[in-house]
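Figure 2 data, in text form.
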Amino acid sequence: MQKKQSYFIENKNSILNNSKIKQMKKIVVLTGAGMSAESGIKTFRDIGGLWEEYDIMEVASPQGWQKHPEVVLEFYNQRRKQLLECKPNAGHIILAELEKYFDVDIITQNVDDLHERAGSKNVLHLHGELRKVRSTGDPNLVYELDGWEIKLGDTCEKGYQLRPHVVWFGESVPNIPKAEKICQAADIFLIVGTSLNVYPAAGLMYAVPSGIPVYYIDPHPAPTSDNIIVIPQKASDGLKKIQEMLLK
């Protein structure tokens, strides 16, 4: 049975208008593809998204890498090239500005660096980072990429081919335990721009202490439990509303 969703209603009784919120120190934010969509980063699931252009298992799986690594490298080269042309949007800027008043931790499913470029200091990437590469022979060898291209024949110091530093389908998500600990310390939890269909990331909401306010910002929100307040807006608009009320 689908549970009733609680939708955000702006009124004087809103939890966000409660003065106790101003005493809360840690905001934890889980961001997904919708966070960066306003910057021009294509999502996989939306209409016109990358799933319509590519067989995702061909370009984002260990099997695809083994089958045709040159295609995988080119796919990520193009994503990286696009990223260099994009800028943080208003939503990214708002989250960075909140650090002036709160202890903010961002846990992102995105592989772009737009949170960092907006000025956010505490960003944990669950699914890797597009502007980094790592060794196929030693996963501990991770490098910042100068430029946007990786080619066959580009190797680490041990002679192994370099690959994108991203988590592919079928691979483990090593930062999940760290993310769970961050969520357990949250005083306010924000979910921004995610379908809540990608696990284990979507399960992080269950690591949040019971009783704290949880807000879900997305123009097409997934069904959620009735203790989550849903703001059915795009990331920048929803975060602007959150920012205004937190700082009252």
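Caption note: Strands lie at 6-7, 26-31, 103-108, 123-125, 128-135, 142-144, 162-166, 188-192, 214-217, 229-231.
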